[in-house]
Amino acid sequence: MNSVILDRSVAKRYFYGTKGPKLLGTVGTIIAFMFGHSISSYRGPSYGIIFALLTIIGAIIWALVEKFGMKKEQENVIDACIEADLSNFRERALKKLGLVNEQVSIITPIKVLGPYYGHTELKVKSNIFTALFKAIYRFFTYTTQLKFKYGSDDKLRYSLIQAHMFFFSDSQIYVYDICYDICSGDIFEESTLEYFYRDIDCVITGEKMEKVLSKKKIINKKFEYFKVVVTSGTSTHALADVETSILDTQVMAMRNLVRSKKEEMLVG
After folding, report:
1. Bridge partner residues of 211 (DSSP)
2. Which three-class secondary structure state does DSSP give residue 123?
3. d(C-alpha 196, C-alpha 204), whole Å
4. 59 pLDDT exceeds 70?
5. Whole-angstrom distance, CA of residue 177 vs CA of residue 170
6. What does the alpha-carbon distance between residue 148 and residue 150 come to, in Å, rounded to a whole number?
7. What are phi and psi of 48, to 5 degrees?
8. Least packed by Cβ within 10 Å: which of 4, 44, 112, 214?
9. Mean pLDDT of 157-179
10. Which residues pair with 181 in a beta bridge?
11. Whole-angstrom Cα distance, residue 242 to residue 46?
12. Torsion-angle region of residue 41: left (phi > 0), alpha (psi -120 to 50) or beta?
């Protein structure tokens, strides 16, 4: 995964912002509170108040520049980062499955991306001083969370990603699943599966609505999904953004392949 050098700090700034504007605004607010009593009706505001107001205005401008100024450039970097990750994951998957490209070139491999909901932060009860310390610590450091954000291109991006890869040989389907944090590169889960065509019962496709939190608002987002179900009852479930159109393109090729392989076995 680290064969390509990736600037993940851009993803952190995109999803979480930086601490600078908040810190500068906090300093300005504290100064304004400290010097508020020194405002004189005949001399005008004190230098402390003027400095505080300039600090707060500077924090607001800084935050707006971060939010809107470099958004498109950040999105391009994040998209390039994801493509590099997928390239690395493909090599990683083939190595774990013990395969080479020539063995799984019967049709184009399927890559499906969706948000990863499996990460949860453990919450431990603590006293007020420990809670305050943790709050201050989180203010200055990065804490892993699932963040959603609509981009300038109206594309939904998310900080925690679940990627499914399906590879196809003459006799089997190979599945590689990985869940990771785009902001840090940390991997949460990783697994592989293998299915023989003769054991595949059906491929189920559909759409579902998921509630996501973007810009502090809960919105409904449509996702596509499909399941590969085998006779034993085992299934692989993949969730993807509707923009990828997996139902009309990639899964159709997969269905046709499974159908033709099963027909060959019946004839044989």
Report:
1. 220
2. coil
3. 17
4. no
5. 21
6. 7
7. -65, -45
8. 44
9. 93
10. 160
11. 57
12. alpha
**pLDDT value at residue 190:** 95
pLDDT score at 96: 95
Determine how many CB atoms are found less than 10 A away from the CB of residue 176.
22
Counting residues of the chain whose pLDDT is more than 70, the rounded percentage is: 68
248/229 Cα distance (integer angstroms): 19
Polymer length of the chain: 268
Paired strand residues for 218: 213
Whether pTM > 0.70 for this model: the answer is yes
Residue 178's alpha-carbon distances to 12, 37, 49, 165, 212, in angstroms, are 20, 57, 53, 9, 21
Question: Which tokens in the block code for residue 12?
Answer: 């952190």
Helices 47-64 and 20-35: crossing angle in degrees, nearest 10, is 160
Nearest to 1 by CA among 92, 100, 110: 92
In the prediction, which pLDDT does 116 show? 92
Closest CA to 175 of 99, 114, 64, 262: 99
Helix, strand, coil content of the chain in percent (nearest 5): 45, 30, 25
Which parts of the chain fold into alpha helices (H)? 9-16, 20-35, 47-64, 71-97, 128-140, 250-267
Q: Which residues contact 51 (CB under 8 A, 6 or more apart)?
A: 28, 31
pLDDT tens, position by position, 73-129: 888 889 999 999 999 999 999 999 999 999 998 998 988 888 998 887 656 566 676
User: 42 or 111: whose pLDDT is higher?
Assistant: 111
Q: Report the pLDDT value the prediction gives residue 4, as an integer from 0 to 100.
A: 44
Q: Which is it for the CA torsion 249, 160, 88, 66, positive or negative? A: positive
Residues 6+ apart with CB under 8 A from 169: 99, 103, 104, 106
* Contacts of 213 by beta carbon, 8 Å cutoff, 6+ apart: 148, 219
Q: What is the dihedral of CA 181, 182, 185, 188, to 10 degrees?
A: 20
